[in-house]
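Q: How do we represent a protein-ligand complex in a form that can be generated token by token?
A: Start from the inputs.
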Amino acid sequence: MDVSKIREDFPILARSIGDRPLVYLDSAATSQKPTSVIRAEERFYASQNANVHRGVYALSVEATDAYEAARARVARFLKAKDPSQVVFLRGTTEAINVVATSLSRGLLKKGDRVLTTVMEHHSNIVPWQLLRDAAGIELDFVDIDEHGALRADDLERKLARRPKVVTFTHVSNVLGTVNPVREIAERAHDVGALVVLDAAQSVPHRPVDVSTLGADLLAFSGHKMLGPMGIGVLWGRSDLLEKMPPALGGGEMIREVHQDRVSFADVPAKFEAGTPNVAGAVGLAAAVDYLESVGWDDLRAHDHRLLDRFLQRGPERLGPALTVFGPPESKDRDSVVSFRLEGVHPHDVASLLDAEGICVRAGHHCAQPLMERLGVPALTRASPYLYNTEDEVDRLVAALGRVIETFRGSRTVPTAAS
Ligand code: 7TS
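Then emit the structure tokens for the protein with 7TS bound:
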């Protein structure tokens, strides 16, 4: 994989921050976009824009065809049986909310249990808490061990309470932990639970094959996998999607509406109320093309080269001042590294790195229950992707060295805590 060639495809990487070249290490928050994705959206708006599934005129038919072709492309990417299993929504958050709301309309009842985990992003906690508060659903959390893996004993203990839904993240956005989806799904199915998978952090980095993964429903966001913001996917087993009531009501999702009754469109339209993000879907299809043209083997090897470099160079250069969270072995994790520098608030780390043009994220990463479990208020996180270089990882490590020196050498630097 020729990273310098790949970088040429991402126009934003040519810019600088102040007088420093941009070092973008926040791809777990959102990835940068290649020209092909930017152009695909532009092409749609410049030459095909019309609302879909409504017009009888040629332009609207073209727009509808572009939208449905994007759906078919994403279905192929996921190895889904049928494009109708791909529901376009705004992203992972909306998809999980749609699932929770839909299930609460008849498929889950008061006292039913949902099992999630302490390592979830808020988007896989709060929708279920809303159900707990509104519909009397009981919510359990699987704990993690000291290496940031889900505890099998705790999972078993909580599966024994016979949850109706088991929902978890494929890859943690904080720890990088890769959860064994197939094994967990098998155990969940043994107790009769539905498996809902948050694939926001896995789909950008590894082939996700829904035909063998074991999930019944799966959600991800386009913007973390080189695609546009505001487009994402809910994939589901056909029989399940057909059984699930709609979550959002409005145009596009109905068959007939009368004053006294309504009937709904078939899947996937049943879940896509309102005008969809057609340009976003077209852009997402272009992102899928881009990822597949790079190839998963090369991409994953590159991810791990960068990860290994940080896990090796970081401790060498920074010594015990650096604490890395998550699985110690890079083979057990994906491209996310969260860490603390002793005596420096994560926000100060991120601010000082920003002064060098390096973008990392600091805070609770929308995973406050996980922060509480880890006993930390916040962490700094670097999340590289296919356009980052080993040189950029070295720059990060060197800059972290300067952060430590700054804080050891001077107390005049304001801290986030002060
Ligand atoms: N699930 C996981 C595992 C995530 O990492 C994120 C976003 C979401 C769900 C929500 O995705 P959205 O596209 O609907 O917002 N994670 C992050 C992050 O780690 N930093 O910024 C966003």
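The chain has two domains: 3-30+295-408, 37-292. Residues 296-318 form the longest helix (23 residues).
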